[in-house]
Amino acid sequence: MQDVYAETVSAINFNNGVVRMLLVDQDPQLLAKGEQVAADIEPRLKQQVIMPLPGFLYMLSVVKGLMEDPKMQGIIEKYAELGLLPSGFEAAPTGAGKDDEAAA
Asked: Which of 6, 27, 36, 75 would staple 44 via disulfide (CB 3.0–4.6 Å)?
């Protein structure tokens, strides 16, 4: 198995039952040369993840379960306190989304 590190997902595209997630990171060569400063960082396409819609939806349910885990919520709160997450980002309270599912 090959590990891939990515800073984030820059785009998600859905077409003909297939979901593509574009993974990006910073170009280490530009950083090492000092050619990019934090304000000018442009993401570099790293790799893409391609999966059928059912697999993508299952992944979302796994992520939702992770976000509802009290340990994860505590870590997110600590990151937010330290300013390591964008402003306005909050951990979802336990049980979040249950009302949304009932309304759907």
From this structure: 27
Average the pLDDT over each of 2-16, 18-32, 80-94 and give the range with the smallest value.
Answer: 80-94
Place of tokens 């919520």: 73
Instruction: Give the pLDDT confidence of 67-81 residue by residue, as tens digits.
Output: 999 999 999 889 988
Average pLDDT over the chain reads 82
The Cα 94–Cα 66 span in angstroms is 11
Cα angle for residues 37, 43, 26 (degrees, 5° grid): 60
Give Dmax over CA atoms of the chain in angstroms.
53
Residue 78 and residue 104: Cα distance in Å, rounded? 32
> Rounded to an integer, what distance in angstroms lies between the CA atom of residue 18 and that of residue 92?
28
Phi, psi of 8 (to 5 degrees): -165, 180
Helix, strand, coil shares of the chain, percent, nearest 5, are 40, 25, 35
Element (H, E) at 8: strand 8-15
